[in-house]
Amino acid sequence: MTSSVTVGVLALQGAFAAHLSILRDLGVEACEVKTNEQLASIDALVIPGGESTTMSMLLVKGDMLDPLRQRVADGMPVFGTCAGMILCSEGIEDGRADQHCLSAIPIVSRRNGYGRQIDSFEAELDVTGLDEPFHGVFIRAPVVDSVGDGVSVLAAVDGQPVLCSHGPVTVASFHPELSGDSRLHRRWLIDAGLLPEGLAEASDETVEVTP
Fold this sequence. Notes:
By secondary structure, the protein is of the alpha/beta class.
Protein backbone atom coordinates (compact mmCIF):
# COMPACT_ATOMS: atom_id res chain seq x y z
CA MET A 1 0.00 0.00 0.00
CA THR A 2 1.12 3.58 -0.70
CA SER A 3 -0.07 6.85 0.79
CA SER A 4 -0.17 10.47 -0.37
CA VAL A 5 0.92 11.48 3.12
CA THR A 6 4.54 12.60 3.50
CA VAL A 7 6.14 12.07 6.89
CA GLY A 8 9.44 13.71 7.62
CA VAL A 9 12.09 12.52 10.04
CA LEU A 10 14.24 15.25 11.55
CA ALA A 11 17.71 14.30 10.36
CA LEU A 12 19.99 16.91 11.89
CA GLN A 13 21.48 14.39 14.32
CA GLY A 14 20.58 11.10 15.95
CA ALA A 15 19.03 7.76 15.02
CA PHE A 16 16.75 8.73 12.14
CA ALA A 17 17.43 5.95 9.60
CA ALA A 18 15.47 3.27 11.49
CA HIS A 19 12.41 5.54 11.63
CA LEU A 20 12.55 5.96 7.86
CA SER A 21 12.62 2.16 7.45
CA ILE A 22 9.58 1.69 9.70
CA LEU A 23 7.57 4.41 7.93
CA ARG A 24 8.39 3.11 4.46
CA ASP A 25 7.40 -0.38 5.54
CA LEU A 26 3.98 1.09 6.34
CA GLY A 27 3.71 2.38 2.78
CA VAL A 28 4.14 5.99 3.81
CA GLU A 29 6.23 8.43 1.81
CA ALA A 30 9.05 9.29 4.21
CA CYS A 31 11.91 11.74 3.85
CA GLU A 32 14.73 13.31 5.81
CA VAL A 33 14.14 16.84 7.09
CA LYS A 34 17.22 19.05 7.32
CA THR A 35 15.95 22.38 5.97
CA ASN A 36 12.98 24.70 6.30
CA GLU A 37 12.02 23.93 2.72
CA GLN A 38 11.77 20.23 3.57
CA LEU A 39 9.89 21.05 6.78
CA ALA A 40 7.30 23.02 4.82
CA SER A 41 6.68 20.09 2.46
CA ILE A 42 5.67 17.43 5.02
CA ASP A 43 2.40 16.47 6.70
CA ALA A 44 3.87 15.08 9.94
CA LEU A 45 7.24 14.81 11.65
CA VAL A 46 9.17 12.23 13.65
CA ILE A 47 11.80 13.65 15.99
CA PRO A 48 14.24 10.81 16.71
CA GLY A 49 16.54 9.94 19.55
CA GLY A 50 20.01 11.41 19.73
CA GLU A 51 21.20 14.26 21.95
CA SER A 52 18.49 16.78 22.76
CA THR A 53 20.83 19.69 23.47
CA THR A 54 22.67 19.16 20.18
CA MET A 55 19.42 18.95 18.22
CA SER A 56 18.21 22.15 19.87
CA MET A 57 21.43 23.96 18.95
CA LEU A 58 21.30 22.70 15.35
CA LEU A 59 17.70 23.86 14.98
CA VAL A 60 18.77 27.33 16.10
CA LYS A 61 21.84 27.31 13.85
CA GLY A 62 19.74 26.31 10.84
CA ASP A 63 17.05 28.92 11.60
CA MET A 64 14.57 26.06 11.92
CA LEU A 65 13.42 26.43 15.52
CA ASP A 66 10.76 29.10 15.00
CA PRO A 67 9.35 27.55 11.78
CA LEU A 68 9.15 24.17 13.54
CA ARG A 69 7.43 25.70 16.55
CA GLN A 70 4.93 27.33 14.20
CA ARG A 71 4.18 24.03 12.42
CA VAL A 72 3.63 22.40 15.82
CA ALA A 73 1.39 25.27 16.94
CA ASP A 74 -0.59 24.87 13.71
CA GLY A 75 -1.33 21.25 14.65
CA MET A 76 1.21 19.23 12.67
CA PRO A 77 1.33 15.65 14.03
CA VAL A 78 4.62 14.88 15.78
CA PHE A 79 6.12 11.67 17.16
CA GLY A 80 9.08 12.31 19.46
CA THR A 81 11.22 9.45 20.72
CA CYS A 82 13.83 9.56 23.51
CA ALA A 83 15.66 12.86 22.88
CA GLY A 84 12.75 13.76 20.60
CA MET A 85 10.44 13.50 23.61
CA ILE A 86 12.60 16.00 25.49
CA LEU A 87 12.48 18.39 22.54
CA CYS A 88 8.68 18.05 22.36
CA SER A 89 8.22 18.78 26.06
CA GLU A 90 6.75 21.92 27.55
CA GLY A 91 9.59 22.02 30.05
CA ILE A 92 12.91 20.27 30.75
CA GLU A 93 13.68 19.69 34.42
CA ASP A 94 17.47 19.62 34.08
CA GLY A 95 17.92 21.34 30.73
CA ARG A 96 20.66 23.84 29.96
CA ALA A 97 19.82 27.52 29.95
CA ASP A 98 20.32 27.65 26.18
CA GLN A 99 18.33 24.47 25.48
CA HIS A 100 15.03 25.01 23.67
CA CYS A 101 11.89 22.92 23.54
CA LEU A 102 8.84 22.96 21.29
CA SER A 103 6.01 22.81 23.85
CA ALA A 104 4.33 20.27 21.58
CA ILE A 105 2.88 18.34 24.54
CA PRO A 106 2.19 19.53 28.12
CA ILE A 107 4.71 17.37 29.95
CA VAL A 108 7.90 18.11 31.86
CA SER A 109 10.75 15.72 31.08
CA ARG A 110 14.09 15.02 32.67
CA ARG A 111 17.18 13.95 30.70
CA ASN A 112 18.87 10.60 31.42
CA GLY A 113 16.23 9.86 34.03
CA TYR A 114 17.08 6.16 34.04
CA GLY A 115 20.83 6.76 34.17
CA ARG A 116 23.61 6.80 31.63
CA GLN A 117 24.49 4.34 28.86
CA ILE A 118 25.39 1.59 31.32
CA ASP A 119 21.88 1.75 32.79
CA SER A 120 20.10 1.20 29.48
CA PHE A 121 17.52 -1.58 29.53
CA GLU A 122 14.72 -3.28 27.62
CA ALA A 123 11.17 -4.01 28.78
CA GLU A 124 7.92 -5.50 27.53
CA LEU A 125 5.35 -2.71 27.67
CA ASP A 126 1.59 -2.99 28.03
CA VAL A 127 0.38 -0.26 25.69
CA THR A 128 -3.17 1.05 25.64
CA GLY A 129 -4.77 0.04 22.35
CA LEU A 130 -2.33 -2.78 21.52
CA ASP A 131 -3.32 -6.41 22.00
CA GLU A 132 0.23 -7.65 22.56
CA PRO A 133 3.12 -6.15 24.56
CA PHE A 134 5.53 -3.81 22.80
CA HIS A 135 9.28 -4.35 23.20
CA GLY A 136 10.75 -1.10 24.51
CA VAL A 137 14.44 -0.29 24.09
CA PHE A 138 15.55 2.33 26.64
CA ILE A 139 18.92 3.99 25.96
CA ARG A 140 19.87 6.86 28.29
CA ALA A 141 16.14 7.36 28.46
CA PRO A 142 14.47 10.50 29.78
CA VAL A 143 11.61 10.33 32.25
CA VAL A 144 8.33 12.21 32.39
CA ASP A 145 8.29 14.15 35.66
CA SER A 146 4.77 15.55 35.23
CA VAL A 147 1.88 15.51 32.76
CA GLY A 148 -0.58 18.30 32.08
CA ASP A 149 -4.30 18.33 31.42
CA GLY A 150 -5.47 16.18 28.53
CA VAL A 151 -2.34 14.03 28.30
CA SER A 152 -3.00 10.30 27.92
CA VAL A 153 -0.44 7.97 29.48
CA LEU A 154 -0.37 4.97 27.14
CA ALA A 155 2.39 2.95 28.84
CA ALA A 156 4.40 3.09 32.05
CA VAL A 157 7.34 1.37 33.72
CA ASP A 158 7.06 1.03 37.50
CA GLY A 159 4.38 3.70 37.46
CA GLN A 160 6.53 6.14 35.47
CA PRO A 161 4.98 7.27 32.13
CA VAL A 162 7.06 6.22 29.12
CA LEU A 163 4.54 6.71 26.30
CA CYS A 164 2.16 9.68 26.20
CA SER A 165 -0.13 11.36 23.70
CA HIS A 166 -1.96 14.65 23.44
CA GLY A 167 -3.95 15.39 20.30
CA PRO A 168 -1.76 14.70 17.23
CA VAL A 169 1.42 14.44 19.32
CA THR A 170 2.85 11.21 20.73
CA VAL A 171 6.09 10.92 22.69
CA ALA A 172 8.06 7.91 23.91
CA SER A 173 10.99 7.85 26.32
CA PHE A 174 12.27 4.74 24.53
CA HIS A 175 13.26 3.84 20.95
CA PRO A 176 10.27 2.12 19.26
CA GLU A 177 12.09 2.16 15.92
CA LEU A 178 14.79 -0.19 17.25
CA SER A 179 12.25 -2.92 18.01
CA GLY A 180 11.44 -3.35 14.31
CA ASP A 181 7.77 -3.21 15.33
CA SER A 182 5.71 -0.68 13.37
CA ARG A 183 2.62 -0.66 15.60
CA LEU A 184 3.32 2.58 17.45
CA HIS A 185 4.19 4.48 14.29
CA ARG A 186 1.02 3.08 12.68
CA ARG A 187 -1.10 3.96 15.71
CA TRP A 188 0.23 7.51 15.78
CA LEU A 189 -0.50 8.05 12.09
CA ILE A 190 -4.00 6.59 12.40
CA ASP A 191 -4.81 8.61 15.52
CA ALA A 192 -3.57 11.74 13.73
CA GLY A 193 -5.91 11.02 10.81
CA LEU A 194 -3.10 10.43 8.32
CA LEU A 195 -3.76 6.73 7.66
CA PRO A 196 -7.10 4.90 7.40
CA GLU A 197 -8.29 3.01 10.47
CA GLY A 198 -8.15 -0.25 8.51
CA LEU A 199 -4.38 -0.23 8.80
CA ALA A 200 -4.80 -0.86 12.53
CA GLU A 201 -5.68 -4.40 11.52
CA ALA A 202 -2.59 -4.81 9.35
CA SER A 203 -0.18 -7.62 10.16
CA ASP A 204 2.36 -7.03 12.88
CA GLU A 205 5.30 -8.20 10.80
CA THR A 206 8.56 -6.67 11.89
CA VAL A 207 11.17 -5.07 9.70
CA GLU A 208 14.92 -5.19 10.00
CA VAL A 209 16.39 -1.95 11.26
CA THR A 210 19.90 -0.70 11.76
CA PRO A 211 20.45 1.11 15.07
